[in-house]
Structure prediction request, 273 residues.
Amino acid sequence: MILASVVAALFGLLIGSFLNVCIYRMPRDLSVVRPRSFCPECNQTIAWFDNIPLLSYVMLGGRCRRCGYRIPVRYPVVELLTGAMFFCAFWFLGTTLAAAKFAAFGAIMIALVFSDLEERILPDEFTLGGTALGVISAAFVPVSGGILLFILFSSKNHWLISVCDSLLAAAICSGALWAVRGLYEKVRHREGLGLGDVKMGAMIGAFLGIQGALLALLVGSLLGVIIGLGYTWFTDKDASTYELPFGSFLGVAALGVGFFSEVIFNWYGRLGA
Prediction:
């Protein structure tokens, strides 16, 4: 268990390093494959020994070796969070498909949180791609609190019901955000939620199911209101025009809800089995 968790954490650090590439390049419509990692200030290619997750940042003192450009702290934070997510998933759930599912969900959410926080963009590769991955994974790891699974519990095709539950949750959550978006525009005559937020809602529903996803929407909205209003008040920004990174709040809420519903709950279930 310990060895598998440590290996998963190391793999998570590598995934986190790749997520940093995606967070920087996707909003700028750059390829995440080529060219190799480079300094955004001097455009010089970063050597492999300066691109080791966490370690290189510490050894370089958080600066580019060539030009001294200060590397954003987001890089080690994303790597550390992703590694921690992978470790927790495999520590609590073992080497199971459920652990792999939550690890993938956590990685996607981390990328979306920081992408929206920095660029106010939620890339389709993560939202729509994540929705597809969530639906596919539902065939192997049943979604929690599924409506159809509860109604048709006697059915033998549980995997098919789980997939349909995942699709239904994705549709309901994205539909709810779409409705809020339309209502806000009608009342305030300006955009309040972007389409990226709507797609992100579908992705969360596909992974967490209807109960977890709706709870994540509620918690994310509360976080947005409390922290958003607090931020605008302390910085003297106009709350009526400030573009709030709602996707970041939604992502944090989804990670918290997902951790307790998909990891802790299942872990207790395994202990009681």
